[in-house]
Write a structure and sequence with these properties.
The chain has 114 residues and is mainly α. The chain has 6 helices and no strands.
Length: 114
């Protein structure tokens, strides 16, 4: 089995976070649904997995706070009800707004590390 480099893992982690942002609320329904329910969903299961976050932490791509916030983001997403997987839900549900805000917060904290 091939493993990806930590640098590539970090790029994919950032791409995952970039699929989940408050600015999506002004996008068309199909963009919201693609970004969150296809791209972000894959990334949550892969690049926000605790083992990958530990690897990023160990290699100093993220710090402990960012790792913990990323775990929280993953858990919040995984707990969202399956019946809240539409663009209108994302626009109107407080849980979705919390997820989008948390992803933006994580990206902001990462930018301050660089």
């Amino acid at each position: 089995m091939n493993t990806i480099s930590t640098k590539k893992l970090f790029e994919l982690y950032l791409d995952t976070l970039d699929c989940c942002k408050l600015s999506l609320l002004s996008e068309a329904d199909d963009i919201i649904e693609y970004e969150l329910f296809e791209e972000f969903d894959i990334g949550v299961h892969s690049f926000l997995h605790h083992k990958n976050l530990e690897k990023l932490l160990k290699e100093n791509y993220i710090d402990e706070e960012i790792k913990n916030l990323s775990i929280e983001l993953r858990e919040m997403y995984l707990l969202i009800d399956e019946d809240k997987h539409g663009a209108d839900d994302v626009r109107n549900d407080k849980d979705w707004h919390a997820i989008l805000k948390l992803s933006d917060l994580i990206k902001n904290k990462i930018s301050k590390l660089e």
